[in-house]
Write a structure and sequence with these properties.
The complex is a heterodimer of chains A (about 110) and B (about 110).
Chain A lengths: L4 E3 L2 E4 L5 E6 L6 E8 L3 E9 L2 E5 L6 E5 L5 E5 L8 E8 L7 E2 L3 E5 L1
Parallel strand pairs in A: 2-11
Antiparallel strand pairs in A: 1-3, 3-8, 4-5, 4-9, 5-6, 7-8, 9-10, 9-11
Chain B lengths: L2 E5 L2 E5 L4 E8 L5 E7 L5 E7 L5 E3 L5 E5 L4 E6 L8 E8 L6 E3 L3 E6 L1
Parallel strand pairs in B: 2-11
Antiparallel strand pairs in B: 1-3, 3-8, 4-5, 4-9, 6-7, 7-8, 9-10, 9-11
Classes of the chains: A mainly beta (about 110), B mainly beta (about 110).
């Protein structure tokens, strides 16, 4: 089975721009979770989607949003980028909520 | 709220020596427990997990962890370190009600030749 894929792997944006990151889960997995990883804050949960519905949400501002499509692929969007949004964004999929999460390689976002 | 504490942001061991990475959680109800490993510029890979049953859990690459309820601990061990074990290791717990993963800060494992 192919693993979790994330595109793009690297992204450079400037402050004020917006960005969309994509995640394709393992085939058959319906739950997708997003995390932000930074040296200072570590791994922080952004949100989880299951069957196109947001099931859980972390403590991030409304500039961070996501969605899931009927094929379970997910996108997350960050609007009005700030320097502090520079991070590795990780996507993880599982067959259902609470099941083991499998991670993609991440998207490294740099905001200049 | 649940929290996870990993003792030591960096742990250095010699090749062939015992690896011990510590993880303590705060919960009165035993949660699900996980160890993940992250190699540079990669995502996280599951090493092992505890849900129920046997408290000694064996994982990939020769790692194992023991769930000790009385100590609220889930320490990760490997009898003999290998250079390829150099990576960052994360402990995580999952609340049995909402399944959200709460992460430790991570421990960088350094292997000395």
């Amino acid at each position: 089975k192919a693993g979790v894929t994330q595109t793009p792997r690297y992204l450079i944006k400037t402050r004020g721009q917006q960005v969309t990151l994509s995640c394709s889960p393992i085939s058959g997995h319906r739950s997708v979770s997003w995390y932000q990883q930074t040296p200072g804050q570590g791994l922080q949960f952004l949100f989880e989607y299951f069957s196109e519905t947001q099931r859980n949400k972390g403590n991030f501002p409304g500039r961070f949003s996501g969605r899931q499509f009927s094929n379970s692929r997910s996108e997350m969007n960050v609007s009005t980028l700030e320097l502090g949004d520079s991070a590795l964004y990780l996507c993880a999929s599982s067959s259902k909520s609470g099941d083991t999460q499998y991670f993609g390689p991440g998207t490294r976002l740099t905001v200049l | 709220a649940q929290s996870v504490t990993q003792l030591g942001s960096h742990v250095s061991v010699s090749e062939g020596a015992l690896v011990l990475l510590r993880c303590n959680y705060s919960s009165s109800v035993p949660p699900y427990l996980f160890w993940y490993v992250q190699y540079p510029n990669q995502g996280l890979q599951l090493l092992l997990k505890y849900t129920t049953g046997a408290t000694l859990v064996k994982g990939i690459n020769g790692f194992e962890a023991e769930f000790k309820k009385s100590e609220t601990s889930f320490h990760l061990t490997k009898p003999s370190a290998h250079m390829s074990d150099a990576a960052e290791y994360f402990c995580a717990v999952s609340d049995r009600s909402n399944y959200q993963l709460i992460w430790g800060a991570g421990t960088k494992l350094i292997i000395k030749p």
